[in-house]
Amino acid sequence: FAASAFAEISVKTVSPVSVPVEQDCPLSGEVDAEYASNYTCRGIVASHSLTEGDGIIPASVDLNYKLDDCNSVVGAASCTFLISGHHMAGERDFSFHNETDFLFGWKNRDGLLKNLSTTLGWNLIHGGLLGSFAKYDHAHSVTQEFYLNLNYDLTQNWFAGVTTSYAFQGMTGWWFQPYVGYKAALCPVTDIVVTAGMSATSSYFGA
């Protein structure tokens, strides 16, 4: 069992995706682009070991297909671009590359409890820190996991939640991340998000 604490600030730009079909279409989506000062993965600030710097640019496309007032099918594709360099501690023989994620799942909003969002799904991760561990042990750069996220809106701006996942390919074991955060709009398409919490693992990084 291993645990660590984290705090982060991200600036997020959101562009809603317009779907040119009939009114009340159940399909919606958005394109996100962010900047983060560090590449953090499963509670590890991996970019501190990159001699070339720390910054990253996460970008994603998120889709939501509404089934009814409470339930949706969700999917996302994202890429975390390392703008700092890829070599761990300057070692050219040990490096990791941009991280690509694909998610698919079911989301329930307000159905179980008002202001509570519950998401259950599957996640495939290629590259990044987890891909490097997977490649070291299994000769490929893919990790797959099932995950559960509970997110509760405390107020219009404050939120809290927990993410739990079980990895079954590449990495194996449990990962837990409770968190609390604050979200504020800088302008109609840009938000600033401040998040703090902790990350814990069991039988994951060999701990």
Task: Name the features.
207 residues; mainly beta; ten-stranded antiparallel β-barrel; globular
Describe the protein in words.
There is one protein chain. By secondary structure, this protein is mainly beta. Helix content is 5%, strand content 60%. The protein is built from 1 helix and 12 strands, in the order E-E-E-E-E-E-E-E-H-E-E-E-E. It has one helix at residues 128-138; strands spanning 2-16, 27-35, 40-41, 44-45, 56-66, 71-82, 99-109, 116-126, 142-153, 158-169, 173-187, 190-202. The strands form 2 sheets. A 10-stranded antiparallel beta barrel has the order 1-2-5-6-7-8-9-10-11-12. The protein has a two-stranded antiparallel ribbon with strand order 3-4. A hairpin with a 3-residue loop joins strand 10 (158-169) and strand 11.
Number of strands: 12
CA-CA gap between termini: 5 Å
Order of helices and strands: EEEEEEEEHEEEE
Main beta sheet: 10 strands, antiparallel, barrel
Global mean pLDDT: 81
Strand content: over 45%
Instruction: Write down the oligomeric state.
Output: single chain
Poorly predicted runs are none
Spatial strand arrangement across the major sheet: 1-2-5-6-7-8-9-10-11-12
Structural class: mainly beta
What characteristic shape results from the CA principal axes? globular
> How many whole angstroms does the radius of gyration measure?
18 Å
Alpha plus pi helix count: 1
Q: Which percent range fits the helix content?
A: under 10%
